[in-house]
Design brief:
8% helix, mainly beta, 1 helix, 124 residues, five-stranded mixed barrel
Length: 124
Amino acid sequence: MPKKKFSPSSINKSLLLKEDMQEYGLITKILGGRRFTCNCFDNTTRIAIVRSKKIRVDNDDIVLVSLRSFDNKTCDIIHKYDKTDIRSLQKQGEIPESISSTSSITSSSSSSTTDDCVFNFEDI
């Protein structure tokens, strides 16, 4: 008798919404040691720490973080949202429509130019 194949999408899971002392965030940089730079949707950049080894986080992931009452610069990642969860949160108005799982929050200070090269390769 063959075993049933396990599919993560077949599990009925409830969508976690933010509560008091929680915020949605976008992972922008991997720092190492289960630490990440997270742009929270309250316009604050925080160091986010994964406490559980079961959560796999990468750049441009939307996460739910738990804020610390004694430290505003650090937070804990408690849940990572997949693409279907992100679409549901956008439909409910919890996160902006302009945010997607593959795009990052753009800021005017993050623009980079490629004209900073000091070498002229034609002279070589």
